[in-house]
Specification:
By secondary structure, the protein is an alpha+beta fold. It has a single domain (27-172, 180-293), classed as paralog of FGE (formylglycine-generating enzyme). Helix content is 23%, strand content 16%. It has a four-stranded antiparallel beta sheet. Strands 11-10-12 form a three-stranded mixed beta sheet, with helices on one face. A hairpin with a 6-residue loop joins strand 10 (244-246) and strand 11. The longest helix has 18 residues, at 123-140. It is globular, with a radius of gyration of 21 Å.
Length: 294
């Protein structure tokens, strides 16, 4: 009898782990393209084990195209005050390199960068995006209570690990796969990128070109497309590196950016941008939403 009860209990936990929020009818819920479901589960935080309720999360960082659509809607609706708060500060690219005028001019507007993560936006802009997207999803799902927001630190870490309790990175324990290929966009600091000036003897870092373009992360001042490399087991891309991601806790980010080292893009790595309040070329965001039936 006890064995049967234990079996049913474990079966119940398994079903809960792969079931959306209570009250949600997945057949009726209109989930926008690009979102994946992160099932309920638990996260170890020191000596504590925290329960994480399932949610839908954007598989990539919010892209330039996504954000431009949001700005267009604000403008069309005459929401001039919000539009001013949400503007992209493209001049932020000048922080990333001495000469970055092409990035200032093109990164946020040129079609070639549509699917790259939006950066150089303020936290206020990201929160306005959440409010706007919530309005869109609520209108499409009148029978559900929709909430769109930034993930908490615990939710972000749980999602980044993709169901693996002790992963260092979103795809395992290493920065490269078994073929030696890099799996993340980050600052590659290593012997293969160091050059010795023959006149001064000083070391300097060189850019390695692949097919006429800098290798991802090597240049140190450019993101990779939002949907690049391999997604983790929840279907999430670039949780480590590329653009550091704002979280619900004010002035905090997770995941590190393309300009950070391999150590600093770990899931539990240090927050390189803690306390940064202004728009930054290193910081973007991704959103999640929950739905509860009315």
């Amino acid at each position: 009898m006890k064995k049967h009860l234990l079996l049913f209990g474990l079966l119940g936990l398994f079903i809960m782990a792969f079931t959306p929020n209570p009250g949600v009818n997945k057949k009726k819920l209109k989930v926008p393209k690009g979102f994946v479901y992160v099932p309920s589960g638990s996260l170890k935080d020191g000596d504590k084990t925290l329960s994480i309720q399932g949610f839908f999360m954007l598989a990539t960082e919010v892209s330039n195209l996504d954000y431009r659509e949001f700005l267009h809607h604000l403008e069309a609706a005459g929401r001039t005050a919000d539009l001013a708060k949400a503007q992209v500060h493209a001049e932020g690219w000048r922080q990333a390199a001495q000469y970055n005028e092409p990035m200032v001019e093109h990164y946020h507007q040129h079609p070639a960068y549509e699917n790259y993560p939006v950066v150089n936006i303020t936290r206020e802009g990201a929160l306005l995006y959440c409010t706007w997207l919530q309005e869109q999803l609520q209108s499409q799902n009148p029978d559900q209570f929709i909430k769109v927001r930034l993930p908490t630190e615990q939710e972000w870490m749980y999602a980044a690990r993709g169901g693996h309790e002790d992963y260092y990175y979103s795809n395992g324990y290493y920065l490269r796969n078994n073929k030696g290929e890099f799996m993340y966009s980050y600052r590659h600091v290593g012997d293969e990128y160091l050059h010795t000036d023959p006149k001064t003897g000083a070391f300097e870092r060189k850019t390695i070109m692949i097919s006429g373009r800098p290798a991802n992360g090597v240049l140190g001042n450019l993101t990779a497309p939002a949907q690049s490399f391999v997604p983790n087991d929840f279907g999430l891309y670039n949780m480590c590196g590329n653009a550091a991601e704002m979280i619900a806790e004010d002035g905090r980010t997770k995941g590190g950016s393309f300009a950070d080292t391999g150590y600093d893009i770990r899931i539990d790595g240090p927050d390189t941008y803690a306390g940064v309040q202004e728009a930054s070329p290193y910081i973007g965001f991704r959103v999640l939403f929950s739905a509860v039936g009315k």
